[in-house]
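Subgroup meeting minutes
Present: P.N., E.W., G.H.
Scribe: E.W.

1. P.N. recapped why we're keeping a running log of single-chain structure predictions: easier to compare across weeks, and new members can see raw inputs and outputs side by side.
2. G.H. added today's entry (225 aa).
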Amino acid sequence: MPVYQIPDELIFPDPELAEDDGLLGVGGDLSPERLRLAYSNGIFPWFSKGEPIMWWSPDPRCVLRPEKLKISTSLRQALKKGNYKVRFDTCFDEVVRQCSAAKRKGQRGTWITKEMVQAYIRLHELGFAHSTEVFMDGELAGGLYGISIGMTYSGESMFHLRPEASKIALWHLVQRLKDWKFPLIDCQVTNPHLLSLGAEEMPRKEFLKQVIRDRQKPGHKGRWE
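Output recorded in log:
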């Protein structure tokens, strides 16, 4: 199948037309309107510095159902210790920048470029992007951020400066989304770490049906703190 050139007009091809690796199209921009349209149709941007904007919709999709989160022994001990505080949306910019700076095994750079950072900050200001933050000894120790459209939460990235801090953030995010009856967290691309946390693969067709259903629901727009 062809890789589509995304026009200036706010439209995307049908996600089912993506390449075997999930690549759907190239081009467009990172405006809040385009990002909202993308996420509400099961599409997300993913590219590195120096590359054009690339849009993806992989098959299968990696998702985490809140009730299936796996709690490791080390995480259980960290939660029980309780030497931390969790906040939402109090330092979104810093969480995104820490995620961008985090060194990851097997990666030489980051996909969270400066333009991506600014794009997600704009979405946060509009009430569609949210951070979960873990503080230890009064300092930011770890966290994660993602996009919430309707009743679908798309996790983007996480980081930790102290052991287990990112997993603590994930646990508290999952509890909140479970209370709000979000059916799943979109984890986008499968990897062993996500599977170890309880994530699973869902056929793209089934995932897109879920997204279309859930984008019509009111969700929780605005600051979460």
